[in-house]
Amino acid sequence: RKVIVVNGPNLGRLGVREPDVYGHQDLETLRRDCTAWGRELGLDVEVRQTDDEAEMIGWMHRAVDERTPVVMNPAAFTHYSYGLSDAAHMVTDAGLPLMEVHISNPSARDAFRKYSVISPVATGTITGMGFYGYRLALEAVAHLLEQ
Ligand code: DQA
Hints:
Oligomer: single chain
Structural class: alpha/beta
Largest sheet: 5 strands, parallel
Shape: globular
Strand order of the largest sheet: 2-1-3-4-5
Bound molecules: 1,3,4-trihydroxy-5-OXO-cyclohexanecarboxylic acid
CATH class: Alpha Beta
Helix content: 40-55%
CATH superfamily: Dehydroquinase, class II
Number of domains: 1
CATH topology: Rossmann fold
Strand content: 15-25%
Distance between the termini: 14 Å
């Protein structure tokens, strides 16, 4: 079963951007990790990244139409994009898993990071576990698909 792992703005800069917060590994490493973890779980994982809100919203529309479960790190969109929130809501409303992941623990950081517009519509949220959080999210998706 296909699963998309979508990453929002500035996550193409992993490894370079605030390595003390996000680690020293880059997006390509995350892509390889997620693909390998997916394979172990019997999931065909496709990892994407965009800085463009419209593109991310379009991915959610397609996920609904093609019945594709989603793992999402919405990055800064987390904190303000009602457009992405509505699009994510369509995914879970369609009965598909949508797991929200954050590499850091946003609630331990700046005040503006304490609220997520995605969490209220997500199936579940994993924060503060680094890249390992994506593995946990993929395990959750595999579990939910077995239900
Ligand atoms: C992030 C946390 C967000 O607050 C931030 O804007 C990001 C990354 C994380 O993975 O910890 O870009 O989603």
